[in-house]
Amino acid sequence: MNIKLSAEDRMITFFRYFSLFLTSLMFLITRTGPPLFYKIPIIMVLALLAPAFTIAYRSLRHKPHAVMASVSIEMSLILLLAICTGGYNSPFKLYSLNPILIAAGSLSFYFCWSLLVGYFAIFFGFSYFYYKSAESTLVSVLLENGNLFLALALTVTFMQLLSRFRRQREEANARTNEMLEHIKSLYHIVETSSEHDFMNIGQVITEYAVKLTKLNKALFWFASYPGGPSPVSRQTGWLPEEEVNLFGELKVHESEWRRQKEPIFKSFPSSGDLLLMPVRMSTRFVGVIGVKLEAHEGLENRRWYIQQLMFLAELSAITLERHELSVTENRLIVTNEQNRIADEMHDSVSQSLFGIVYAAHSLKQSCRKMTPSQLEEQIELIHDSATKAAKELRITIYSLSSKKSGGPTWLGMVRSHLQSLSRLNDVEIDFKVKGDDFSLPYTYHKALFRIISEATGNAIRHGAARKIEVELTLKPRWVGLAVRDDGVGFDTDLLWTRSEENTGGLGMKNMQHLTRSLGGDFQLSSSENSGTQILISIPVGVIELKNA
Predict the structure, then answer these.
(1) How confident is the model at residue 388 (pLDDT cuts 50, 70, 90)?
(2) Which of 143, 375, 384, 538 has CB atoms 3.0–4.6 Å from 479's, for a disulfide?
(3) Is there a single domain that holds both residue 15 and residue 151?
(4) What is the pLDDT of residue 548?
């Protein structure tokens, strides 16, 4: 098994072999201790044990109890070696720094100091009784050898401080990386959200607030807006019967929230201590995002929560403002398109139809007075006018259809997105389509794009896939989607367990929710080192029947 060595691992390994070399050299050249033919086998045994313990510590680094046992065994062997090779004068008495460094860097504070004190007490006790001279006293021996304990104690203290800083840095990096993953996923959801998703954006934000802060309860309360419908206030973690009191208390203090621009710490009788952050667009006040604080939270954690809520508040404000601008823009586009169609109809088709109606009326009034040839000529003129009107109408219809006019289609946008994803990440993405999306409702377009984008993004980010296959089957009453990759895979049971405990990612949960919201079936299969496969089947028309 290949284990990646850290800088700390390399430093400890270098110290082990360097200290072994120096102590062995001192052991050989000193005249005290056992004869030379005994010293050489002892050094050879040490040379064999050094790499054995080094490998053991690396392979057992995630098993604290096994590391404790290994450290205790090595410390006992070094203790026995130091006592048997001269006691106070043994060059191996400082070789005990090797297991002590391991204990200080990866084991608990109490175990490390217990190991150090126990080593010094046993070593000093045995050495005192076996190697003391007639004129030596206990105090004098302690004073002479106290520097040994001092050197070991200072080394342990320094190593524990270094280990603490390393763990804090690793925790900060892990939290930052996790936050960035959540932010990317949240941004993706916001970018591809539909009108239905927008009205429930509060639920998305509260779920991510729980993810980012690691707290159990979060809320997004929306103030009333006279200019149109507001998204629904949502919460995560509170019981349904507690939700009414929660939003009721927030509503009572609405005037206070409107005046605030900074984070607010507020305590409510029925909801506990809350950290609230006002959400403001450039034009109006939206509401507040909040989390319920735990009693044991320190100042540093509260600063972290404030940073996360400020980010979510800004993202929410930008999202809501973009949505309102998008709605206004769509309305203007529709209005302009209606005016354009009306002008085209009036200038071309309408004029032709008016001419046909007028000619037909005139023919009706004077047909009895016309000769057969004159009547045939008038009918031919009306026929030509009707043919011209039909041609103009067909041209107008074709210009309105992106499919017939060669404009951008939904499938073209999906293909373009996957091609960009492939180029940016150097991943092969094979996109296959069976059928036509022309009659597929817009709701399905939006949901399928989100699912395809989420599935391929997960395969690249988390699965480290090099090849992805996307197969889309479009039929009048059924849509099928299959996404397969050759990535590292994962344990699906562990994924759903973490999802239920709110400790896993939301990507799979989002795809499952989107599929089921359309009345479809979501199937996931994966295993470690065997890639991942997602199969989705969605009946077309279920949403329309529900909303009818």
Answers:
(1) confident
(2) 538
(3) yes
(4) 47
pLDDT in tens, 289-338: 999 998 777 777 888 889 889 988 888 888 888 777 777 776 777 677 67
Radius of gyration for the chain, computed over Cα atoms and rounded to the nearest angstrom: 38
CA 488 to chain centre: 17
For 86, left (φ over 0), alpha (ψ -120 to 50), or beta? left
Q: What share of the chain is helix, strand, coil (3-state, %, to 5)?
A: 65, 15, 20
Q: For residue 351, tell me if it sits in a domain.
A: no
Q: Is 454 exposed, middle or buried (0-12, 13-18, 19+ CB in 10 A)?
A: buried
The residue segments making up the domain with residue 167 are 7-171
CA distance 535 to 525: 9
Q: Encoding tokens for residue 194?
A: 């539909």
Residue 373 and residue 369: Cα distance in Å, rounded? 12
Q: Which domain CATH number covers 477?
A: 3.30.565.10
Contact status, residue 99 vs residue 116, Cβ threshold 8 Å: no
Report the number of distinct structural domains present in the chain: 3
Please give the sequence-ordered ranges of beta strands (E in DSSP) within 184-237, or none if there are none: 218-222, 234-236
- CATH label of the domain that carries residue 292: 3.30.450.40
Whether 274 has a pLDDT exceeding 90, the answer reads: yes
Task: Determine the pLDDT at residue 521.
Answer: 92
pTM: 0.49
* pLDDT for residue 379: 81
| Paired strand residues for 267 | 273
Same domain, 85 and 154: yes
pLDDT at 1 over 50: no
Same domain, yes or no: 18 and 147: yes
CB atoms near residue 483 (< 10 Å):
24
